[in-house]
Protein backbone atom coordinates (compact mmCIF):
# COMPACT_ATOMS: atom_id res chain seq x y z
CA UNK A 1 0.00 0.00 0.00
CA UNK A 2 1.38 3.41 -0.97
CA UNK A 3 0.95 6.03 1.72
CA UNK A 4 0.54 9.70 1.15
CA UNK A 5 3.12 11.11 3.50
CA UNK A 6 4.42 14.52 4.49
CA UNK A 7 7.68 15.61 6.07
CA UNK A 8 7.08 19.16 7.28
CA UNK A 9 9.88 20.91 9.12
CA UNK A 10 11.41 24.17 10.27
CA UNK A 11 15.17 24.56 10.16
CA UNK A 12 17.34 27.65 10.47
CA UNK A 13 20.90 26.33 10.25
CA UNK A 14 20.30 23.08 8.37
CA UNK A 15 20.44 20.38 11.07
CA UNK A 16 16.73 19.59 11.13
CA UNK A 17 16.68 19.74 7.36
CA UNK A 18 19.26 16.93 7.25
CA UNK A 19 17.01 14.76 9.41
CA UNK A 20 13.91 15.68 7.38
CA UNK A 21 15.65 14.80 4.12
CA UNK A 22 16.76 11.44 5.47
CA UNK A 23 13.22 10.59 6.57
CA UNK A 24 11.88 11.56 3.14
CA UNK A 25 14.58 9.48 1.43
CA UNK A 26 13.58 6.40 3.42
CA UNK A 27 9.89 6.85 2.62
CA UNK A 28 10.59 7.40 -1.06
CA UNK A 29 12.94 4.42 -1.11
CA UNK A 30 10.11 2.24 0.19
CA UNK A 31 7.84 3.42 -2.61
CA UNK A 32 5.71 5.95 -0.75
CA UNK A 33 4.40 9.23 -2.01
CA UNK A 34 6.30 11.93 -0.07
CA UNK A 35 6.07 15.71 0.14
CA UNK A 36 9.09 17.33 1.78
CA UNK A 37 8.26 20.89 2.83
CA UNK A 38 10.15 23.51 4.80
CA UNK A 39 7.73 25.74 6.71
CA UNK A 40 7.67 29.43 5.83
CA UNK A 41 5.40 32.38 6.67
CA UNK A 42 2.83 31.34 4.11
CA UNK A 43 2.70 27.58 4.61
CA UNK A 44 -0.90 26.45 5.00
CA UNK A 45 -0.69 22.74 4.29
CA UNK A 46 -3.69 20.74 5.51
CA UNK A 47 -2.17 17.86 7.45
CA UNK A 48 -5.33 15.83 7.08
CA UNK A 49 -4.59 15.45 3.38
CA UNK A 50 -1.84 12.99 4.47
CA UNK A 51 -1.91 9.61 6.19
CA UNK A 52 1.58 9.75 7.66
CA UNK A 53 3.01 13.06 8.88
CA UNK A 54 6.50 13.77 10.21
CA UNK A 55 6.49 17.17 11.89
CA UNK A 56 9.87 18.54 12.91
CA UNK A 57 11.67 21.62 14.12
CA UNK A 58 14.86 23.03 15.50
CA UNK A 59 14.56 23.73 19.23
CA UNK A 60 14.59 27.40 20.21
CA UNK A 61 14.19 28.15 23.92
CA UNK A 62 12.90 24.62 24.55
CA UNK A 63 10.15 24.91 21.97
CA UNK A 64 9.82 24.66 18.19
CA UNK A 65 10.87 27.71 16.15
CA UNK A 66 8.56 30.71 15.86
CA UNK A 67 8.11 29.80 12.18
CA UNK A 68 6.79 26.35 13.09
CA UNK A 69 4.66 27.61 15.97
CA UNK A 70 3.13 30.33 13.79
CA UNK A 71 2.18 27.71 11.20
CA UNK A 72 0.55 25.63 13.93
CA UNK A 73 -1.35 28.66 15.25
CA UNK A 74 -2.61 29.49 11.74
CA UNK A 75 -3.82 25.92 11.28
CA UNK A 76 -5.36 25.74 14.75
CA UNK A 77 -7.51 28.77 13.93
CA UNK A 78 -8.59 27.21 10.68
CA UNK A 79 -9.26 23.78 12.20
CA UNK A 80 -11.32 25.24 15.04
CA UNK A 81 -13.37 27.39 12.65
CA UNK A 82 -14.08 24.52 10.29
CA UNK A 83 -14.99 22.08 13.05
CA UNK A 84 -11.98 19.81 12.57
CA UNK A 85 -11.04 20.23 16.23
CA UNK A 86 -13.86 19.28 18.57
CA UNK A 87 -14.04 18.28 22.25
CA UNK A 88 -12.40 14.92 22.98
CA UNK A 89 -10.37 15.20 19.76
CA UNK A 90 -11.67 11.94 18.27
CA UNK A 91 -8.86 9.73 17.01
CA UNK A 92 -8.75 9.45 13.24
CA UNK A 93 -7.98 5.85 12.33
CA UNK A 94 -5.26 5.65 9.70
CA UNK A 95 -3.81 9.09 10.47
CA UNK A 96 -0.39 8.60 12.03
CA UNK A 97 2.37 11.03 12.94
CA UNK A 98 5.88 11.31 14.36
CA UNK A 99 7.36 14.47 15.91
CA UNK A 100 11.07 15.13 15.60
CA UNK A 101 13.50 17.86 16.52
CA UNK A 102 17.17 18.67 16.56
CA UNK A 103 18.64 20.40 19.58
CA UNK A 104 22.00 21.12 21.15
CA UNK A 105 21.16 20.63 24.82
CA UNK A 106 23.92 23.04 25.89
CA UNK A 107 22.51 23.64 29.34
CA UNK A 108 20.40 20.75 30.53
CA UNK A 109 20.58 18.23 27.67
CA UNK A 110 17.58 16.23 26.54
CA UNK A 111 15.19 18.09 28.84
CA UNK A 112 15.53 21.11 26.51
CA UNK A 113 14.15 19.11 23.59
CA UNK A 114 11.30 17.20 25.17
CA UNK A 115 8.98 20.23 25.53
CA UNK A 116 9.42 21.02 21.81
CA UNK A 117 8.24 17.64 20.56
CA UNK A 118 5.57 17.58 23.29
CA UNK A 119 4.21 20.87 21.97
CA UNK A 120 4.01 19.53 18.42
CA UNK A 121 2.49 16.30 19.69
CA UNK A 122 -0.29 18.16 21.52
CA UNK A 123 -1.21 19.95 18.30
CA UNK A 124 -1.29 16.77 16.22
CA UNK A 125 -3.39 14.99 18.82
CA UNK A 126 -5.86 17.89 18.88
CA UNK A 127 -6.38 17.26 15.17
CA UNK A 128 -6.88 13.55 15.81
CA UNK A 129 -3.56 12.10 14.69
CA UNK A 130 -2.16 9.04 16.43
CA UNK A 131 1.34 10.19 17.41
CA UNK A 132 3.58 7.15 17.40
CA UNK A 133 6.94 8.54 18.52
CA UNK A 134 8.98 11.63 19.37
CA UNK A 135 12.56 11.77 18.09
CA UNK A 136 15.26 14.05 19.52
CA UNK A 137 18.51 14.33 17.57
CA UNK A 138 21.54 16.26 18.76
CA UNK A 139 22.70 18.99 16.37
CA UNK A 140 25.71 21.30 16.39
CA UNK A 141 24.95 24.77 17.76
CA UNK A 142 26.19 26.62 14.68
CA UNK A 143 28.06 29.88 15.31
CA UNK A 144 28.48 29.08 19.01
CA UNK A 145 31.77 27.39 19.88
CA UNK A 146 30.96 27.11 23.59
CA UNK A 147 27.51 25.64 23.11
CA UNK A 148 28.97 23.12 20.65
CA UNK A 149 31.85 21.97 22.83
CA UNK A 150 31.25 22.35 26.57
CA UNK A 151 27.52 21.77 26.96
CA UNK A 152 25.87 18.68 28.45
CA UNK A 153 26.62 16.65 25.32
CA UNK A 154 30.28 17.67 25.11
CA UNK A 155 31.64 18.13 21.60
CA UNK A 156 28.72 18.02 19.19
CA UNK A 157 30.41 19.58 16.18
CA UNK A 158 29.30 18.09 12.87
CA UNK A 159 26.14 16.58 14.29
CA UNK A 160 23.79 15.27 13.18
CA UNK A 161 26.48 13.08 11.66
CA UNK A 162 26.14 9.96 9.55
CA UNK A 163 25.68 7.85 12.69
CA UNK A 164 22.78 10.06 13.84
CA UNK A 165 21.21 9.95 10.38
CA UNK A 166 21.59 6.17 10.20
CA UNK A 167 19.65 5.99 13.47
CA UNK A 168 16.91 8.16 11.97
CA UNK A 169 16.84 5.90 8.93
CA UNK A 170 16.42 2.84 11.14
CA UNK A 171 13.66 4.47 13.13
CA UNK A 172 11.81 5.56 9.99
CA UNK A 173 11.94 2.00 8.69
CA UNK A 174 10.72 0.87 12.12
CA UNK A 175 7.67 3.13 11.80
CA UNK A 176 6.88 1.76 8.35
CA UNK A 177 7.24 -1.77 9.70
CA UNK A 178 4.97 -0.98 12.63
CA UNK A 179 2.33 0.29 10.23
CA UNK A 180 2.94 -2.65 7.86
CA UNK A 181 3.95 -0.23 5.13
CA UNK A 182 7.18 -1.85 3.96
CA UNK A 183 5.92 -3.27 0.71
CA UNK A 184 9.09 -5.28 0.00
CA UNK A 185 8.76 -7.13 3.30
CA UNK A 186 6.85 -10.40 3.63
C1 LIG B 1 17.97 31.20 18.81
C2 LIG B 1 18.34 29.79 19.16
C3 LIG B 1 17.83 29.22 20.32
C4 LIG B 1 18.18 27.91 20.67
N1 LIG B 1 17.66 27.38 21.81
C5 LIG B 1 17.97 26.10 22.15
C6 LIG B 1 17.44 25.52 23.35
O1 LIG B 1 16.68 26.12 24.10
N2 LIG B 1 17.80 24.26 23.65
C7 LIG B 1 18.60 23.52 22.84
O2 LIG B 1 18.85 22.37 23.17
N3 LIG B 1 19.13 24.05 21.70
C8 LIG B 1 18.83 25.32 21.35
N4 LIG B 1 19.34 25.85 20.19
C9 LIG B 1 20.20 25.02 19.32
C10 LIG B 1 19.41 24.42 18.15
O3 LIG B 1 18.21 23.83 18.60
C11 LIG B 1 20.23 23.32 17.46
O4 LIG B 1 21.47 23.80 17.05
C12 LIG B 1 19.45 22.77 16.27
O5 LIG B 1 20.04 21.59 15.82
C13 LIG B 1 19.37 23.75 15.13
O6 LIG B 1 18.58 23.23 14.13
P1 LIG B 1 18.54 23.85 12.66
O7 LIG B 1 19.96 23.75 12.12
O8 LIG B 1 17.62 22.95 11.90
O9 LIG B 1 18.08 25.24 12.76
C14 LIG B 1 19.04 27.15 19.84
C15 LIG B 1 19.56 27.73 18.67
C16 LIG B 1 19.22 29.03 18.33
C17 LIG B 1 19.81 29.62 17.09
Name a few traits of the molecule.
single chain, 186 residues, 5 helices
Structure, explained:
This protein starts with a strand and ends in an 8-residue tail after the last helix. A hairpin with a 2-residue loop joins strand 3 and strand 4. The protein has five helices and six strands; from the N terminus they run βαβββαβαβαα. Strands 1, 2, 3, 4, 5 and 6 form a six-stranded mixed β-sheet that branches. Helices cover 36% and strands 22% of the residues. With 186 residues, it is α/β, with parallel strands linked by helices. Helix 1 packs across helix 5. The chain has one domain: Flavodoxin domain (Rossmann fold, 3-Layer(aba) Sandwich), CATH 3.40.50. The chain is globular, with a radius of gyration of 16 Å. The chain binds flavin mononucleotide (FMN).
List the helices and strands and how they pair.
Blueprint (H helix, E strand, L loop, with lengths): L3 E7 L4 H15 L3 E6 L13 E9 L2 E2 L1 H16 L14 E8 L10 H14 L2 E9 L6 H5 L12 H17 L8
Parallel strand pairs: 1-2, 1-3, 3-5, 5-6
Antiparallel strand pairs: 3-4
The site of flavin mononucleotide has 20 residues, from helix 1, strand 3 and strand 5.
Radius of gyration: 16 Å
CATH topology: the name is Rossmann fold
Based on the coordinates given, report the CATH architecture: 3-Layer(aba) Sandwich
User: If helices are DSSP runs of H or I spanning 4 or more residues, what is the number of helices?
Assistant: 5
Which sequence of SSEs, written as H and E, runs from N to C?
EHEEEHEHEHH
Return the domain count: 1
Morphology: globular
The computed structural class is: alpha/beta
Q: Roughly what is the average pLDDT, rounded to an integer?
A: 96
Distance between the termini: 13 Å
Indicate the CATH class. Answer: Alpha Beta
Low-pLDDT windows of residues: none
Biggest sheet, in brief? 6 strands, mixed
Assembly state (oligomeric): single chain
Going by CATH, the homologous superfamily would be Flavodoxin domain
- Count of strand segments: 6
Beta-strand share of residues: 15-25%
Amino acid sequence: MVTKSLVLYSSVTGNTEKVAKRIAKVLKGKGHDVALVRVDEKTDIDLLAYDLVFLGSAVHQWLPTKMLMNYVKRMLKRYFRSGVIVPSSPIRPGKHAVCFCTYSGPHTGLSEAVPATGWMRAFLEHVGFIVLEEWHTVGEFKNSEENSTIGRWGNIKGRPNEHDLAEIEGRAIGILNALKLCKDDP
